Amino acid sequence: MTKIVFFIILTFGVELFLSGHNNPGGGFIGGLVLSSAFVLLYLVYDIETVHRGTPFDFKRVAAFGVFLAVGTGMLSLLFGESFLSQTTWLVDLPVFGETELGTMTIFEAGVALTVLGVVVTIILGISEDVE
Amino acid sequence: MIESMLTISVILFALTILVAVIRIILGPSLPDRVVALDVIGVNLIATIAVVSVILNTKAFLEAILILGILSFIGTIAFSKFIERGKIVERERDR
């Protein structure tokens, strides 16, 4: 039952993350919803079981997210633009038709990974047993 | 007609939230406060739905979904805290 709810929340988080251009949503809120899914897993199971299922450290997820976001910002310096400027392309994809691809999405993915890692780390940190 | 009904229902939802806040402040035990928090979450969801009908927009529907998820997780966390005494366990004992 928990696994079903977990995947529903994950799907909703990814949908919020992808709809961030023209609708309410974006990287920050998507990351918060994804982290709430992981918090639900930590509530229902325990820390050892979840860490066996997700073989990555959430601090490293946060660090990789910051690297991705800042790296996307720095990449625009190579093309002579100012820091964090963005660009979009219109691409013909086979299934989706004419799609707008932008470098903003990579930055948003970095923000989402950062929020996911930081929130899960904070929740685990404040729930630690002090004995 | 419909407009005034919707406005009155929003006012009544606000009154319900006020009563639940009183129960949170006065509530003699922890389960009373948990149930009052759950009532506030459900009433917020209903208020957002009615307000989005009044404003004739679809922009708030994702906020309804997020509030539903968060109040669900919050209720689970509170009930586990009442039952077990701690929220996230290091090793599960069944």
Structure characteristics:
heterodimer, A: 131 residues, mainly alpha, two-stranded antiparallel sheet, 5 helices, B: 94 residues, 80% helix, 0% strand, flat
What does this structure look like?
- The complex is a heterodimer of chains A (131) and B (94).
- Chain A is mainly alpha-helical and 131 residues long.
- Chain A has one domain (2-126).
- In chain A, a hairpin with a 3-residue loop joins strand 1 and strand 2.
- In chain A, helix 1 runs antiparallel to helix 2 (27-44), helix 2 (27-44) runs parallel beside helix 5 (104-126) and helix 4 runs antiparallel to helix 5.
- The model of chain A has no long low-confidence stretch (mean pLDDT 83).
- Chain A has helices spanning 2-18, 27-44, 47-53, 58-78, 104-126; strands at residues 88-93, 97-102.
- Chain A starts with a helix and ends in a 5-residue tail after the last helix.
- With 94 residues, chain B is mainly α.
- Chain B has one domain (2-84).
- Helices cover 80% and strands 0% of the residues of chain B.
- Chain B contains three helices and no strands.
- Chain B has helices at 2-26, 30-55, 61-84.
- The longest helix of chain B has 26 residues, at 30-55.
- In chain B, 3% of the residues are buried.
- The interface between A and B is medium-sized, with 23 and 18 residues.
